[in-house]
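Consider one such protein record:
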Amino acid sequence: MTSAPDHRHEAADLSVFLGADVCGTAGLALLPGSRGPVYDEDVWDLTGLADANHSMLPHEKRWEFTDIANPRWRHVAKDLLLALMAARDERVLDVPRAFRRPRSPRTCFRYLSQVKSWFGWLTAQGVISLAEVTQAQIDTYLEEQSWSRAEPGKPRRRLADTTMHEPIKTLQILAFYGPLFTADRYRPGFIPWGNRSAFRVSGRKGRTGNTTPPVPDEVLRPLLADCLYLVDVVGPHMADLLDQVEADVSSSNATVSTSRIGATRLARFEEVVARYRRTGTPLPRTQDQVVLDRLAKGWSHDDPLLHLHVNRVASEAGFVPWRAEHITQLRPFLEPAVAELGILDWWGRDAALVPKADSGEMVPWTEPINAREVRDNASFIVHAAQLLTAAVTGMRASELKEIVAGSRLPPTEVSGGGRRFRLASKLIKHQAFGGVPDEWVVVEEVDRAIALAERISSAPPGKPLFGASDVSTSHIHLRDWLRRPFARRLGLAELPDGPLNARMLRRSLALELAKRPGGLLAAKIHLKHVSVATTEGYAHRPGGSQALFQAEVEQAEHDHHMSLMVAAFRQYQSGILPSGPGARDLIETFQHVDAALKDTGRSEPVVLDGERRLENLLRKQAKTLHVGTANYCWFKDPAKALCLRLAGTPQATRPLVGMCDSARCPQATHHREHRAVWADRVRTVEVFLGNPRVPKGEKLRLRAEYDRGVRVVAEIDASTDGAGPEGVA
C-alpha cells in the first residue's frame, strides 16, 4: 500500500472519515486473510473483496488517488466514494441530498474516473479551490467532454446524449454531498445547472419499451448452426484429443533428460526409429516456434531434421536430448527415416469421421495438427458453448460471467420420463453488491454445452467458466476463426460482420418465443422446449432472473399479438377476409371495430391518434389470440375449443395448439400468411399419394387430409378475392 502524505498539520478536519477502515465503514466483506484499505492511503486496494462479481475487472479494484494533483481534492474524492458506498453511515445520513441506497464499488469506480477528469481539467485551468467554480466553467468543460478524442486521420464526433449523462451527474453529486466535505467544496447553494436533472441537461430521454435490436437473421442463423455443430459434433472429439495432449505433456515431463546418450539409449532409439519404418508411420512434426529457434541457432533451411520433433521420437526411447551433440549422434538414424517416411503433425492422425456441416459428407473431424493447434482450436469450442448458452437461455452478460466450473446442478426427473436441467448462477442487476444466488432451468443443449466447456477449459471449481471473455468478444473471435482452414474444411458457415452482444441475443430469444412455433430458432433448437424451460424457471424461482426474462417474453408476445391483430384488421379493410370455421365471428368483430372508428371520425376530435384508438378497440380480441403454425386460434370459450374436447380437458385455460385441427375448430381462422403452409402440406401429401408403396389404408387417410388441405387453400384464395368490408354482411 502507498501511504498518503500527512496533511493533518494543515487542517484538523480534512475529512470526517480520517483513519477509517474503508471496507468496514462501507459494510464490504473481505476474503479470509485479506486486508482492506484505510481511508488515509492514496491507493485503495480492493482485490480482497469477498462479494465482487466476476464482471468486475482487476483494474476496477485498485483505486488510485495520486493522480489528483490537489491534495485537498483527493480527500473530496475519497469522501464522495466512501459516502456513496456507506449510504447508511450516520455521517452520510445527515446529508439531506445524499443517496439512501448504497452504490456498488464498481459504480463508484466509474464516478472516480469522472471526478479525476473534472479535477484534472480544473487544475489545468489554474483553479485551486472548488469554491471558485462557476457555471460558465462547467459549461465549457461539458462542451469539451461532449466530443470524441482526436484520432489521426479521423474527425472528432459529438458523443451521444447517453454518454454525457454520467459526467453531468458526477458534477452534480459533488454539490449534493458538499455538506460532508471539509477539505473543499462548491460555494454554498451552488449546484451545477441549478435544479435541472442530469437527464434534462444531457437531453437524454427515458426509454419507452425495450429498444435493444435483435440479432439479424443473417447473423443468428449461421451462428446457431455453427455453435451447435461445434458443441455436439466436433466438441467431444476435441475434448478427447485435448485430454491426450495434456496426458502426453505429463508423461513427457517425467522423461529423463540426459547429458549423455550411451550405447543402451542409442540402441533403444534405433529400435524406435525402426518401428516407425516397419509400420510406415510418418515422423512427428515440431511446432513452428521450434523451427524459428533452430534457424536462429544456425540450422540450415535445407536441414532434413529442421521440422522434425526429435524429442517426441527420443521420449519413446525413454530420454530427452537437449545438447547439440545429441542431435549429431541421432542423425544417422533419423535422416534416412525422414527421407523414407516424411514428417507429419502428430495429433489427430486417425480422426473419426463426422458429417460436414453443409453437405453431410463424411470427413475426418480434423487433419493432423500439433499440440498448440489442439489447444487453440479447443478454446474456440468454449466460445461456441458460451454463445450457444447466451442465445438459448437469454441470460444477461453479468449472469453468464457468474457461471463457474461446477455450476451444472444434478438433473431432476419429471413425470413422463423427462429430465430438467438446471444451471446455477447469480442475479447481479438491481441487486446488492455481489448479487444473489439464482438458478436457470435450461434445455439439454445448454447442459451439454456447459459440460463440454468445463471439460475443455479445465477451470478449477468455483472459477469463471468462460474467463474474462464476454459474448461480444467471443463472437468476434469465433467469427475470425470460422474463416480458417480448420472450420472451412468442415463446411461451417462464415459469419457476416455486424454487432452482437448478450442483450441482442436475449432480445432475439424473447421475440422468437413471443411469436409462433417454427420461427428462426426452431430450425436448430426446439422452441417449445426452451419455452417450457423458461416457464419452469419462472415457477421455480418467482423472483429470479428467469422470471424477469419470462416477463419480457410475455410483453413481446403481447406486442406481437397486437401487431398481428392490427394487420388482420387492415387486411379486412382492404378486402382480404379471414377464412375458416371462426371467420364469421372474427369478421363481426372487425365490423364492430370499423364502425366504432367511423363514429369516432364523425365525432369531436379525441386525444388519441388513430393507431392508438384502433389498438384500444382490438385489445380485448388480441388477448384471446394464440398463434399456430398454420392458423390463428381465438380462444374465447374453452367449451368450443376442439383441441380441449379431444384431449378431455374442457376446463383448461389455454388451447393445446399442438392438437389443433383448425379446419374444424369453430374458434380457428386462416389468413393469407397461412396459405404457404397449407399449400406446402398439400404438395407433400400429394407425393405420398402417388407412391405405390404406401398402403391402401394409409392412402385413404392421406386422401382425406389432402382434400381438407385443398379446401383450406381454396377458402383462403376465395377470401383474398372478397368484395371488401362494404360488401360483407
